[in-house]
Design goal:
Length: about 280
């Protein structure tokens, strides 16, 4: 599924070796506690690395804090998508709409999720930002964001097409728990952890660092620290929204799962964009 790393990167900075984390005071054994003394000893020796358990705990809290901030929009999307699922199963008059959606997807094939995801997270989000902004002007920054998000999430939509086919082949069809749970587990704890989360996190870091790979690669080693401070908070916030959402999406027939997941992404991103724009406008 889709995460929004840029929403929480600013809140996931892990303290350096001289800051206090939890109950441990980090001052490397090579960093003397004498800030006022200058012995002209040349380059300082490196401080001790962070303890993994404290780094892990802080990253988990950062991800949960981000999830808490978006809990009301998440609840709205969950309820809305649950209502759509109930309409499908209990309101026969709506079947024509769902059938038409399924036919469009069948006709477009892999281009349906690719274009749909790219437009929803790329162009639509930037249009909302412009509309909600004070000047209401489309700037170069909006163009860059729209093109970047269209490419990143368009590719995610393309991969989703084949992932859904694989899951259907491997786990089967239907809405029984023996089908739903394996799909959700594979989606969130295999695909998201190994592919989606690293893919999105690294690309958004690349964008935020001015599209310079050298700055990104300099942050990636040691990888354990990079994963714990950059990728883990994004992963936790992703799970908070998408584990329940994935369960709802997989309750639909196979030919409607991708269209409904795109709808959920679109509504989710639009709400967050509006709330972010209002927050920025209020603090300006």
């Amino acid at each position: 599924m889709i995460a929004l790393p840029e929403l929480i990167f600013s809140d996931t900075q892990i303290p350096n070796a001289r800051q206090t984390v939890g109950h441990r005071h980090y001052r490397g054994r090579n960093a003397l506690a004498a800030e006022g003394i200058d012995w002209n000893t040349g380059r300082a020796l490196p401080s001790d690395p962070l303890y993994w358990d404290d780094m892990f705990g802080r990253s988990i809290r950062s991800g949960l804090d981000a999830a808490k901030q978006t809990m009301k929009p998440a609840l709205f999307v969950w309820v809305l998508m649950t209502g759509i699922a109930m309409m499908y199963y209990f309101v026969p008059a709506t079947r024509g709409m769902f059938t038409a959606l399924s036919m469009v997807q069948e006709k477009m094939g892999v281009w349906f999720p690719s274009i749909g995801m790219g437009l929803s997270v790329g162009l639509i989000v930037e249009l909302v930002k412009v509309f909600m902004g004070e000047e209401k002007r489309w700037r170069r920054e909006n163009t860059v964001n729209a093109l970047f998000n269209f490419a990143v999430f368009g590719l995610m939509g393309w991969s989703s097409h084949y992932r859904y086919l694989f899951q259907e082949e491997f786990f089967g069809r239907g809405t029984s728990w023996t089908v739903l749970l394996p799909k959700v587990m594979f989606d969130q704890f295999v695909w998201t952890v190994i592919i989606a989360n690293p893919y999105q996190t690294i690309l958004f870091l690349w964008k935020n660092d001015g599209f310079k790979w050298s700055k990104v690669t300099s942050q990636m080693f040691p990888f354990k620290t990079f994963w714990g401070t950059k990728m883990l908070p994004v992963l936790v916030s992703n799970w908070a929204f998408w584990i329940p959402m994935a369960l709802i999406v997989y309750c639909f027939p196979s030919d409607l799962q991708i269209p409904l997941s795109i709808l959920a992404v679109t509504i989710w991103v639009l709400i967050l964009s509006i709330l972010t724009a209002k927050k920025n406008h209020g603090t300006a």
